[in-house]
Design a protein that fits this description.
The chain is an all-alpha fold. The chain contains six helices and no strands. It is elongated, with a radius of gyration of 19 Å.
Amino acid sequence: MGLTSSPRRDLLTDRLLDVAEFSHAHWFFGNLYELLVKVPHRVAASQASKELPRSPFGAGSPGRYYAPLAPINAPAAVGALAAGWHDPLTRTWLTAAAAGSVTGAAATVYVLRSLNPKLFFSPEPLAEDQREPLLRRWYNVHAVRLAASAVALTAIHRARTIRLRSR
């Protein structure tokens, strides 16, 4: 099986780009909202209660917003790259989308494993002198996630535009 274009491969590429674009828009604007309203500051300082437990999917946690779509960001972008590799017009954009997506996913894994448990899910909030350095690191890594998702979203849009114009 060669890397030539086929209607099936083109349809798969288009569908994966649809999923990638939607999931990256969801991810980007959710991350932007978290930054603008300082969700981490609010959640990190909150006391646990029966109504608002300090857990990944408790009330007020952004985890409930991201869980349905975030896990498909990188696989959809990488899948679109694999399916669309045969097209030299979009290969660079598909590669940029996949690279941005994988970078954002890696930064997210770091945040989820190394920062969020300490900041948000301990039984009690950390003291401010312990919380502030972790929040600074969280926002620095979050800036990488925002930039990576913006790159991915822009590249996906560009690849889709080129694909539509070349038909």
